[in-house]
């Protein structure tokens, strides 16, 4: 007897896909995936490239992404230990859409700010 996969819909309140959507809609997730799209990267280099992220938030984001199978963590037995992160095959499927969102934000921020100002002036 074959088992069929359930239908998933992020619009349903009980759907587990909502947790995935929440994870990938997170601003830090989008930025981490964008950086890791360039290849394996050390923790310290991620922190430098992600201006404004705290070590705690970066650690939590990386753990969440690893738990979801989107990144893999490589620990090298050195002193001090060297830790690198890279996208998994599943994580690479997110790179293009999240990179596109980051670029959209950069390309359209002037328009968004103009609309915000007009809205707030009303």
Summarize the structure.
The protein is mostly helical and 122 residues long.
What keywords describe this structure?
3-stranded antiparallel sheet; 122 residues; mainly alpha; 5 helices; Arc Repressor Mutant, subunit A
Query: Using DSSP, what is the number of strands?
Result: 3
SSE string, helix = H, strand = E?
A: HHEHHEEH
Measured as a percent range, the helix fraction is 55-70%
The class by helix and strand makeup works out as: mainly alpha
Instruction: Quickly count the helices.
Output: 5
CATH 2nd-level architecture: Orthogonal Bundle
The coarse overall form would be: globular
Task: Report mean pLDDT, rounded to a whole number.
Answer: 93
Main sheet specs: 3 strands, antiparallel
Oligomer: single chain
* Low-pLDDT ranges: none
Q: Numbering strands along the chain, what is their spatial order in the largest sheet?
A: 1-3-2
CATH class placement: Mainly Alpha
Strand content: 5-15%
Distance between the termini: 63 Å
How many structural domains? 1
What does this structure look like?
With 122 residues, this protein is mainly alpha-helical. The protein has one domain (17-121): Winged helix-like DNA-binding domain superfamily/Winged helix DNA-binding domain (Arc Repressor Mutant, subunit A), CATH 1.10.10. It contains five helices and three strands. Strands 1-3-2 form a three-stranded antiparallel β-sheet. A hairpin with a 5-residue loop joins strand 2 (71-76) and strand 3. The chain is globular and about 60 Å long. The chain starts with 16 loop residues before the first helix and ends with a helix.
